[in-house]
Amino acid sequence: MILVFGLIAFVACLGMMASTMDLTSTVFCKVSGTGSKSTDLDGTTKHDFSLSRNTSLADGTAADQADLVYFDDGELAAAADVDLDLAGTLSDVFGDTVTFARIKVIMVSNVSDEEQSPATDAILSVGGGTGQDGTNAFDTWITSTAANGSERVFVRAGGTLLLFAPDATAYAVTAGTIDILNILNTDGADAGDYSIALIGVST
C-alpha cells in the first residue's frame, strides 16, 4: 500500500521592488495500493485501489485562491510546546509578517522519527489554544459548535495531519480570540520534531 502526501507552494516575487507576493499553491494527496489473497481454486486474486486529490490555488482571496503561506520546522523538548499566533507574529519566506484571516491548508508532519538521533516516537498534539489551556484557540478546523478550545488532534511519529478547505469560507481566524495554534510534544522523556505548512488568505 502506498500513501503519498504532497504540498507545493510556488512563490514568485513580482519584480525587484514588488511589495506584494504572487502565490500559486498545489495540494496533492494520494492513497493507493494492491490487496492480494490466495485462493485454492483460482490462485491469487488481486484488487487495486486508489484515492487521490490534486487541487491548485491561484493567487487571491476568493474560493480556490490563497495569498499567504507559512512554512517552518521546529524541535520541541520533552513536554514542551509552541504557540503559533496566526494573526500577526508569523513570517513568510520573504520575512514579511503573515496575518491570516482564513486558513485553506493545514499540514503538520511529526518527523521525530527522522530528525532526532536516535529517532524517537514522540507523539505531538495539534490544537488546544495558548499553552494547551484553550485560550484563543484556533479551533474552527476541528469543530464549529460547542467548542471549548481544548480540542486537539494527536499526530504520531512519522505521521501527518493534512486538512484542505479550498472554498471561500475555509477555517476562520479571528485576531485576539481565535488565532493560536498550539503544538505540544506529549512525550515526557524524548524530544520531538515537526514540519508545518499553512496556506490561507489575508481577508
Map the helices and strands.
Layout: E1 2-13, E2 21-39, E3 43-59, E4 65-66, E5 68-76, E6 81-85, E7 87-91, E8 97-99, E9 102-110, H1 112-115, E10 124-127, E11 152-155, E12 160-164, E13 171-172, E14 180-185, E15 192-201
Parallel strand pairs: 3-4
Antiparallel strand pairs: 1-2, 2-3, 5-15, 6-14, 7-8, 9-12, 9-13, 9-15, 10-11, 10-14
Describe this structure in words.
- With 203 residues, the protein is mostly beta strands.
- The chain has a domain at 60-201: Jelly Rolls (Sandwich).
- Helices cover 2% and strands 55% of the residues.
- It contains 1 helix and 15 strands; from the N terminus they run βββββββββαββββββ.
- The protein has one helix spanning 112-115; strands spanning 2-13, 21-39, 43-59, 65-66, 68-76, 81-85, 87-91, 97-99, 102-110, 124-127, 152-155, 160-164, 171-172, 180-185, 192-201.
- The strands form 4 sheets. Strands 5, 9, 12, 13 and 15 form a 5-stranded antiparallel β-sheet that branches. Strands 1-2-3-4 form a 4-stranded mixed β-sheet, with no helix packed on it.
- β1 and β2 form a beta hairpin.
- The chain is globular.
- The relative contact order is 0.24.
- Mean pLDDT is 88; it is low at 10-18.
Helix content: under 10%
Number of strands: 15
Which secondary-structure class do the elements indicate?
mainly beta
Q: Into which percentage range does the β-strand content fall?
A: over 45%
Largest sheet: 5 strands, antiparallel
Per CATH, the architecture of the domain at 60-201 is Sandwich
